[in-house]
Design a protein that fits this description.
The protein is mostly helical. It has two domains: 30 residues; 143 residues, Cytochrome Bc1 Complex, Chain D, domain 2. The protein contains six helices and two strands. α2 crosses α6 and α4 packs across α6. The radius of gyration is 22 Å and the shape is elongated. The protein starts with a helix and ends in a 14-residue tail after the last helix.
Length: 200
């Protein structure tokens, strides 16, 4: 019985230390972090696009946390400065990601602001990035007769030669595709990082 008591006590102490180190201390450190003035809350369209990003598993292949120059070549790749807690002030839940099958996207809105590029890349990634292993998302688009699309006021996407549908047809983005692109365009954390305010 004495050994079980020691084991249980040791386990509780280990759990307490781990909780303090991994939960309490980080919370105390970042609980008062304010967003940078340049960072704005997501619009309703951007929030819907964020939901599409999650639903399509983009977070499984893309991170949103550029690393410090000392920890990796992210800045040399043009992915931006290392992220700070204030960059995620409006992200609930955070979509940091853990795998880099594709590039980091925290600053994709600054690196690639073109709506047409994003739409075309979602429809057929290899048309824009040769050798890309990113899957295409054709279900975020509709292939329509060009005359019908024009009559309905749709705005078809422009694709490179050889990647579009048959002659007389156009590719039209769905509302989900448009929202996803708005979310991607909102990912721009290129503003300067302010030093933390001194505690009074």
């Amino acid at each position: 019985m004495e050994n079980e008591l020691k084991l249980a006590s040791g386990a509780m102490v280990a759990l307490g230390v781990a909780t303090a180190a991994l939960v309490v201390m980080p919370y105390v450190e970042v609980r008062d972090v304010k967003p940078a003035p340049q960072l704005k809350p997501y619009t309703s369209a951007e929030q819907r696009g964020r939901n599409v990003y999650v639903a399509n598993g983009c977070v499984y292949c893309h991170t949103q946390q550029p690393r410090d120059r000392n920890l990796g070549p992210d800045a040399d790749r043009g992915w931006g400065r290392a992220s700070v807690p204030a960059d995620y002030a409006y992200d609930k839940p955070h979509l940091l990601g853990s795998m880099r099958t594709g590039p980091d996207l925290l600053n994709i809105g600054a690196r690639q602001p073109s709506r047409d590029w994003h739409l075309g890349h979602l429809y057929q990634p290899r048309a824009y990035v040769p050798g890309s292993i990113m899957p295409s998302y054709p279900y975020l688009f509709q292939v329509k007769d060009a005359a019908e699309a024009k009559q309905e006021g749709d705005q078809p996407i422009t694709l490179p030669p050889g990647y579009g549908p048959m002659v007389g047809q156009v590719v039209v983005p769905t509302p989900e595709a448009l929202d996803l692109v708005k979310y991607l365009q909102s990912l721009d954390r290129t503003y300067p990082v302010l030093p933390p305010e001194p505690k009074s």
